[in-house]
UniProtKB/TrEMBL annotation:
Residues 139-289 form the Uracil-DNA glycosylase-like domain. The keyword DNA repair applies. This is Type-4 uracil-DNA glycosylase. GO terms for molecular function: 4 iron, 4 sulfur cluster binding; metal ion binding; uracil DNA N-glycosylase activity. InterPro entries: UDG_Type-4/5, Ura-DNA_glyco_family4, Uracil-DNA_glycosylase-like, Uracil-DNA_glycosylase-like_sf. It comes from the Bacteria. GO terms for biological process: DNA repair. Keywords: 4Fe-4S, DNA damage, DNA repair, Hydrolase, Iron, Iron-sulfur, Metal-binding. It catalyses: Hydrolyzes single-stranded DNA or mismatched double-stranded DNA and polynucleotides, releasing free uracil. It comes from Ensifer oleiphilus. Pfam families: UDG. Residues 43-91 are annotated as: Disordered. Belongs to the uracil-DNA glycosylase (UDG) superfamily. Type 4 (UDGa) family.
Length: 297
């Protein structure tokens, strides 16, 4: 175990960053604690307190006791009933209902007239719980003028740390995929369906996807790409619908209506699929060649 007493502030910061990137959200205590013994002691204490309470409790009455009356004042006033005040409890914080969060996201997205305005609107949006655990908002990056946009599912640890889409090892893999067909990340627009990293790189829930949908659809509408490349299972299902896997959805061109214009769209495997299973590279290469042929006309 690493002792924090022997680490410099810089080393501590690096260690915390490493744990955050690995998805660690809880820290262990310095000394071991026998939780099983604590639990048994707690059960014994509760059992003993219940026995004492039942022994000292008076027998239950069949009728409720009438309210007590205060004696009349010396001036001859009427007797008044004395009732115990209603107990008060601290009410929990009210969360934004899902439907309201979606409406607020739609309003914020539709109000933006440029990608810069949309980024400001998303930075001020508080209706998605993912922003509470993420380090950064990972917004679209690149050049939309060439008419090519690439969308992934969500930021990963490297993206969340750098505040940029497709960073780190997965970004390197995407760079090689693009270079193979004569493209670069600087010449396309890169983005994600969900702009905040889910804890532990888990798949976004349907609720989170619904709340973030207005933002990614508005990005596509404002960028007006001619060709859209979708990466991975989640992204393809998000735009195409259904529950088919990426191996059934990949390699087939579809027309999507986004922002009043038609976008020619192709789905392929995510760089993570290629890193975890290199055999997938041959399928991705077929899709990238088809993408190149279409954008070259």
């Amino acid at each position: 175990m690493i002792s924090a007493d022997n680490l410099s502030p810089g080393q501590l910061a690096a260690l915390l960053a490493f744990h955050a990137d690995a998805g660690v959200e809880w820290l262990m205590e310095e000394e071991p604690v026998d939780r099983l013994a604590e639990f048994e002691a707690m059960k014994a204490a509760r059992s003993e307190s219940r026995q004492q309470a039942s022994a000292s409790q008076p027998p239950a009455r069949s009728e409720a006791a009438p309210p007590t009356r205060q004696p009349a004042s010396a001036a001859g006033g009427h007797a008044r009933e004395s009732r115990a005040p209603a107990p008060t409890a601290n009410a929990p914080a009210v969360a934004i209902p899902d439907a309201q969060a979606v409406k607020e996201a739609q309003f914020a997205a539709e109000s933006a007239r440029s990608l810069a305005e949309l980024r400001l609107a998303m930075e001020g949006f508080v209706g998605c719980n993912l922003r509470n655990s993420a380090r950064n908002l990972v917004f679209a990056e690149g050049d939309p003028s060439n008419g090519v946009m690439i969308v992934g599912p969500m930021p990963y640890a490297d993206d969340d740390r750098d505040g940029q889409p497709f960073s780190g090892r997965l970004g390197d893999m995407l760079n090689r995929m693009l270079a193979g067909i004569g493209l670069s990340r600087e010449g396309v627009l890169l983005s994600n369906v969900v702009p905040w990293r889910p804890p532990g790189n888990r798949v976004p829930t349907a609720r989170e996807a619904d709340i973030c949908r207005p933002f990614i659809e508005r990005q596509v509408a404002l960028a007006e790409p001619k060709h859209l490349l979708l990466l991975g299972n989640f992204t393809a299902r998000f735009f195409f619908g259904g529950s088919d896997t990426i191996h059934h959805l990949r390699g087939e061109w579809r027309d999507l209506q986004m922002g009043g214009h038609t976008v020619q769209t192709l789905a392929t495997l995510h760089p993570q699929d290629l890193v975890s299973a290199p055999i997938n590279k041959r399928f991705a290469w077929q899709d990238m060649l088809a993408f190149k042929a279409r954008i070259n006309g």
